[in-house]
Amino acid sequence: MKFALKTLSALLFTAALPLSVSADQAKISEALEQVGLKVQQVSASPMTGVSQVVTDRGLFFMSDDGRYLIAGNVLDLQNWQQVRGQQVPTNLKDQLMAPIIVEKLAAEKASMIEYKAPNEKYVVHVFTDPSCGYCRKLHSEMKDYLNAGITVRYLAYPRAGVSSETGLQMQHIWCAKDKQGAMDNAKDDKKVAKAMCQNPVASHYELGQFFGVTGTPAVIMPDGQLVPGYMPVAAMLQQLNAG
Questions:
Q1: What is the Cα–Cα distance from 209 to 180, expressed in whole angstroms?
Q2: Which of 31, 69, 129, 147 is most buried (most C-beta within 10 Å)?
Q3: Alpha carbon separation from 50 to 61, 63, 74 (Å, rounded)
Q4: From CA 242, how far away is CA 231, in angstroms rounded?
């Protein structure tokens, strides 16, 4: 999605604000440690009396006194966006996470398995798991995505964990000389030759958790918006064009 100029300007202004004087960073860090979250950054949020906190598990909101944690969605009823053809309130959490996601994906580009469209119009990133039915369905339509000008870059997200059978299979895929061929075989339920090397599967999995991925396929739009679940080409084009 493209934010309205007014909304974007407001966000940039907010990001430039100093941390609220009343925010107690020490209390916030201490409180979040109790629930297993490691604080990376605390800054002012668009909400009065609430800080936005970047942790090792993504972005959360917390009262400046470190007492109340907002772990779910925060909907902005003055700003709406289109998701899967429907107008819905903008999720402030997703909105603020989007530029972080874009930045981190750019840093991981070399470690992805890319299916490049001949006449590229859009690039989407997909967290995938070869054992996932809808991941296989998406992959079976890869030619349609590419013909529509949509480049697909895969990241590994073994739903059962990096040490699972699928996690090991994904390491073989990323270590194969022909990574696309190995991915194609895995998605067709064919044998993938064993190959081991230093690979990004664990880091991709951690990145997915940081982004808030809870299942596969998880599609990241060019603007950093995370759209969970499979989308046929027509629906994905609609979402991309809406952006």
A1: 24
A2: 129
A3: 6, 4, 12
A4: 15
User: Which residue's structure tokens are 């880091």?
Assistant: 203
Q: Which of 24, 94, 135, 136 is catalytic?
A: 135
For residues 199 and 175, the answer to whether their CB atoms sit within 8 Å is: yes
- The active-site residue out of 24, 132, 136, 153 is 132
Give the mean model confidence (pLDDT) for residues 47-73.
91
pTM of the model: 0.83
Whether 56 sits among the annotated catalytic residues: the reply is no
How many CA atoms within 13 Å lie on the side-chain side of 130? Answer: 25
- The question of whether 175 is a catalytic residue gets the answer no
pLDDT at 55 over 80: yes
